[in-house]
Structures are given as C-alpha cells and as structure tokens.
Amino acid sequence: MAAPALARRVAGGPLWTVPLALGIVLILVPYFNLEYSIVRQLQLAMILSLLVSGLNLSLGFAGELALGQVAMYAAGAYTAGLLSVHGHTDIALQLVAAGLAALLVGVLTGIPGLRLGSWSLAMTSFFLVLLLPDVIAIFKEDTGGRNGLSGILSPTLFGRMLTPEDYFMVIAIVTVAWFAVMRNIAVSRHGTALRVLKQSPVLAASMGINVFRMKLMAYALGAVPAGLAGALFASLDLYISPEAFGFTVATTILAASVLGGSASVYGAVFGAFILQFGLNQSTDFQKYSLVVTGAFLIVGGVLLTGGLSGLARALWRRVLAEDPTAAPADRAATAGDEVPAVPGKVLKVEGVAKAFGGNQALKGVDLTATPGRVTALIGPNGSGKTTLLNMICGFYRTDAGVIALDDRQLQRMGPDRVARTGVARTFQTPNIPEGITVREAVMAGRYAGHRATVLEAVLRLPRYRKVRRGDLLEADRVLDLVGIRHLENAEATALPLGQRRLLEVARCLISNPGVLLLDETASGLDEDEVERLAEVIRRVRDAGGTVVLVEHNFQLVLSLADEIVALAHGELMAKGTPEEIQNNERVMSEYLGIDPDAPSAPHVVLADVLDDAVAEGADR
Ligand SMILES: Nc1ncnc2c1ncn2[C@@H]1O[C@H](COP(=O)(O)OP(=O)(O)OP(=O)(O)O)[C@@H](O)[C@H]1O
Q1: Where in the numbering of this chain does the ABC transporter domain appear (predicted)?
Q2: pLDDT (tens digit, 9 = 90+) per residue, 69-78?
C-alpha cells in the first residue's frame, strides 16, 4: 500500500488510539527491566509533561502568558508531603488534596492577574515563583524552610505499601489519565472556545463568552496537573525542598511547552521528554541548565512555529498529500430553497451620545431596525458608524440614550451579555481563530447559548453529547444557508476573504440572533463575492432576520436596504428608503461628494449607478 494511502487509512481511524497505545506501553515499563537511571528519567519526564500540559492549557489554548505553574507544583508537593509526614500516606488521597490545593493557588493568583490583563498575569505569576522560597520559609515549622521537608513516608494505596515498580505505574497511570482528560477538553466545544479567546477576547465577548471566567477556567484547570505532578514528585524521593521549585524549573516548563508546541495536547509530552532527557545527557548540561533550556526555548520559539507538534502536523499533512492552504474547490452557493425562520427582534436606538475626550463621536442618534428588513447605516469616514455598532454590542458605554432589543435595555450590559441577549456581529477584518476547521469555527457561535460543563465534556456525558449533536446539525444548516458547507473541513483561516466573511455570517446565524450587525462585510470582495453575500443577506432578511448593514458600497446598500440611515459628524444626516436617500442633497454632497446643482457628468454617472442598483433591488 502506498504511504499516503496507508496514512489516510490510519487518519480515518480513531487517532486517540495511538497515544493510548503508547500510554499503555509506558504503564508497563516496569516489566521491561530498564536501567534505573532511565526509569528515573522517565518518571521525571512524566511529571514534567503534567506541568507542561497545564501551561499549554493557559498559554497555548487560552493565550495567557502564565508562569506560575511552579507555585502550583509546589503547593501540590507540600500538600502531599505534609499529609504523608502526618501519616496520611495514601497516594490517591494525596493526589486529590494536591490537585485541590493547586487549584486554590491557581484561582487565588489568577484572579488579580487575569483581571489586570495579560502582561500583569505574566508579572504576578513570575513574582509568585520568586516569592516561593520566602513563603516556604515563613511556614518553616511545618515545611522545614530552606532545609526542605524530610520524613515523607513511602506511599501506600488503599492500605497497601507500593513498591518502586508500583509507584512507577501510579505515575504513568496518572499521566495517561490526565492526558485523556486534556485531549477530551481540547477537542470539545470548550477547546474551540479557548482558541476563540486566544484569537481575540473581543471576538470571544462578541460571541457571548464571559472572557474573564473563561481565562480563569483555563488557568485554574491548568493548575490541576501541576498539583498532581507535585504530589507524585513528593513521594518519588521522599524529600522536597524550595530548590526543586525555582526559576530553573519555571524556565524548563516554558521551554518544553514552546519546543513541543504550546497549542497542542501531546506537544507537552514531546517537549518534556526532550528537555528531561536532553538536560541529563551530561553533567555539563546540568551545570549550565539555564543556558541549555534557553537554547531549547529559542529553537522552539524561533525556528519551529507551533513547536515539534506543529512540525509533525505539517509532515502528516504532507504524507496525506493535503495542502492546508488550499481550500477544496469552490462550488457555487448551493443553499437549499427552504430557509428556516430566523427569529429577528426589534432593535431600537434612541438619543445615543458618546464622546471620546473632547471629540463628540455621536450626538443623539436614533435608529430602529425591525425583523424582515435590512437597515443600512452609511456615512463618511469618521461619522460614527463603528462607534454606534460598538455601543450596540456593549464594547463602549453610552453617555446618554437608550439601546433596546425588543424590550430589553442593553446600554448597561457588557458585550458578552449583549451577545447572549441576541446581538451578533461580524468584523471589518474577519476575526477567525487559528487551528480549527470551518465547521468548528461556526459551531463556536453556539457555545454561549447552549451550555455543557467541562466535566460533562471530559466524561462525554449525555447532556454534552446532546449539545454537541445540536452544534453539528445547526452548523450544517447555516453552512448550507451561506453556501459554504462543502468547505466544512477546510482550515478556517486558510479560506479566501470572501468565504471568511460568509463564515462569519454563518457563525452569527448559528446563535439565532435577534439582530445581525454586518460591519463593512463587502469590503475587499470582488463582484461575484459581493453578489453572493447580497444573496445570503436577502435570504436572512426573507427568513425574518433583523439585519443592520454598515457599508461603504453604496450600490450594494441601495440594492439591499429597506431603510437607510445616513450619519455625518455623529449626527443623523438623513433617513429613508433608497429612493429618498439617493435624492437627498445632503447625502449627495457630504457622503458622495457630488454637487447636486452641477449639471455635469458626475450626476449622470451617479444616476446610472443608482438606476442599476435600484433595478437590482427591485428584482429581489
Ligand atoms: N476608541 C476611540 N477613542 C477615541 N476616539 C475614537 C474612538 N473610536 C472612534 N473615535 C472617534 O470617533 C469618531 C467616529 O469614528 P468611527 O470609527 O465610529 O467612524 P466610522 O463612521 O465608523 O468611520 P469609518 O467609515 O472610517 O470606519 C472619529 O472621530 C474617531 O476618531
């Protein structure tokens, strides 16, 4: 069988069986009679893998530069160590307690850092590492201070003393189990939501995701494997001291994460094993471990985008003869004739004002958008269109005025609550997360509206499976509606601009929005793509959707809009049907730059443009 054909057959099967098989081999290592030094390195490499996977969750998946893994590692180790010193030697009990202690440290340190923003988290978590020896010294009565905690007893499990071989198996089983958990999170809707967050917190909030809660969840979840690693480490040498939780370990974790590929599940294992075995190749390496770690960090960060796992993925694609940048051959939109109803709501903006310092961007603007109609918002650059959109979405607070969707006032809500109330938007530059398929990117639009907990996702419980089935079915529906279902397995960021814009519309539609805000969706598209987009907007409007279109393409506006609202200098310049707007002198002079009194060519050209556009609009 040719290599690509064999690879395709393997790829078609459940891929998780490969790491599972490797995990089983690892669990059985005690039966292979390996040298003690190799067995020890394997144990330390598994412990490091756990630490790295925790960092991958917050750094690689959620995009938060958090360096506090070591503090959570120490919390786990000292919790387990102290339990043991006081006679509680059961390793299962120690693992649970250590996981919880690390979770607590993660939550307590994550809250201030995450509230302040990404660099603040890096700084607070970094200081945590520096402070650690002092904190341990403060409690030296219990922890042994800088001398370390001795007197840790050999671990037991359910009353039975563990041999070194048994203990190896415990470490391997915990590691394999954690990676199964991590894998289930990564391929679940929570994993996709984390990638959305990493791409852009603004995008995440506009999809109804509570950004702070999501970041905290990733950071706190990442603490759990660090706590487990700590407990496993404490019973390995039956001695722990502050030196084991220093800056060198923090750098090693970071280097292993970057080298293995921080946005991957199994990259943590690659990175950890290479670092662990690499650093212990010679005593020189150990002596200059910071320098060697730095070298690994540079190799991973500069030479390998996506780390070794990124490289492995690229090679795998090559074997499969796939080109990730080549989306499947484009087909014409094949949307079915029947479009399910879109439950549009009435959007009312009344007397909305906003100033940025001395710049009055909006001065008492009114706008009403109703179901089954397209309301276009036009105006010269700087007239306040995007500001109004951002205020409707909750990104800016109003200085005055009311914004309501049906009867619910939005002007005091944050962007994620506004989105959950039913406001969906696209962006001037399509905002699409990396590393996910078109289908996943669209399904992410349902994340906030249809909930299933992380635990339900990890254990694949019935509620999770039901929500997931709904995600898949609805994704089919909206991808059909916008005509890109044939691209569902393509990498979302690899699509050309026109299809990325359609993807954004699909992502909005899957949330069944009360109002759909389209921000310059046609910009940068060629004529065919604009026509395709216009067709999609008509279909949404005809299905009962409320559409607000912010657009510079005047011809498109005239062909699509039922009502046009024109702004100038943050104020209402004109409002009316396309016919009324095209005859409005202020719109002509201030927006289109045409002198309505001049009996010259521009007027005639404009009339031609408008005639064409209006004729097109009448066809619908
Ligand atoms: N975050 C901000 N801080 C300060 N000033 C801002 C901010 N956002 C917008 N403005 C100002 O508010 C005014 C309206 O800008 P806005 O971007 O809403 O206009 P627009 O009609 O969307 O323009 P364009 O068509 O170029 O996108 C401009 O004077 C702009 O400089």
Answers
A1: 347-594
A2: 899 999 999 9
